[in-house]
Amino acid sequence: MIPVSTSFLRMVRTSIIMILVVLSAACGRNEPTVASPTPVTGEAVSAPTSTPPPLPTDSPSPSPTATPKIITPAIDVDDQTIDDSSQIMINKATIDQPGWIVIQSDDDGEPGHVLGFSQIDNFESENLTVGIDPKMATSVLYAVLYYDRGITGVFEFPGPDAPVKFNGRMTSISFTADNKATLPSLTVSDQVVSEDGIIMVDAVRALADGYLALHNDQDGDPGALLAFVPVNTGLTQDLAIKVNWRSATPIIHAVLYEDMDQIGNFNPNDEDPVVRVLDQPISSSFLAKFPPDVFVLDQPVVGESIVVEKAVSYGPGWLVVYNDDEGSIGMIIGWAALEDGINEGIEIEVNPLAATPLLHLMIHEDLEDIGQFEFPRTDPPLLVEGRFPQPFAVRTDSGNYLITQDQKVSDEMFITIPLVVVDEDAWVVVRNDSDGEPGEIVGRSWVSAGVSRDVSVKLDQELLTEILNVMLHLDGGVSQEFEYPDGVDIPLQRNRSIISAPMTLLTNDED
Asked: pTM higher than 0.70 for the full model?
């Protein structure tokens, strides 16, 4: 063994104590103080002063963040009956922003026309009522949520107020609606109309003041307006309407209109629309049996025939021509078959040798062999209310005449002369105006003897004046070659006056 001195051991012990003190300081202030080792007996060693650890303090805890409440858009509605209040009841509507609860009709399983709406606040709204238009209510309705994204409090759809969508789907719910609300209605029965022209409407029910109009038939739809009367809100029965029955068709359409524009001033279709239920018009079509009607123009007998403008027959019949016997009907000189309904442009061959200046027309029935005129054995004159009606008269000695109408010139520079009646081939000649007198010729058109309708005349645009004069000229030379003024195609006269009728050319601003 190697001997060790006492002084060396003392030095080692002192070094160890110093190292322990340094390590104790390096351990951190919060660590407990390590006690110094007990000094060796006989050695006086001072204990190092320890720094007391700081007192612990409470660390502030962060405030808990509130979890936002997610509002899921939803609607709760029951199947229900629509009564005269026209109110739909909504149990509950939930929405995350101000918006609308909207009732829509059914369109092939999807929300269709908007029938009514009510404004709602965000979050939950309960026991809501929505007024609707019962005339548009289908058996299945939809309640739909919309946001109020445009002008606050104004429903703007189509527009900025769009349906609420959740998870990509529109927030809506369907429900059944039994429509028991009072709806507009109209009933008119087929009827016989006397010569006073009174048509009776069985009943009309209107939800607001409006008009009941009668229209002629045009290919199964309402055509020209015959007559109209105002109707008040509520039920009206046995409503009488007077019509000009000579202008009526056998089938008539009664139509109910709203009074929307100038109250008390009927403006059909545009300003005063047709009343509709489920987009179907409130109308009633019926058959009106008027007295037998014949419309004929005075005309010469041309080519052994006369032409009748219109005759109305109920069932197959005959239009029969009688000559005149000192103011009464004489013998039959011609006839033509009539079909059921309206017959127009009826040409009747007559015996020109038996024709008189005054002829009489009557409608006969066709009773046995249809298409065979068998009077007097059968096919008697048609009775009206148990009596023979007054015959319709036509004069064959009325002379030549024409009828004009104010109108616009077509883009191709044509005008139309509605009617020309001449007893021989002639020219329709149009002259401009020269200080109130016929001026230069601006157009002409040839017509054959007899009755000509809607005669077109092409005009010289450079010679036009606002007032035109339409005249008749004889075609006395080469047929259909206008020979005037150096020829024989002179103006025709009646009672020593040139046959002439004025007309006005309308502008685009005039009707």
From this structure: no
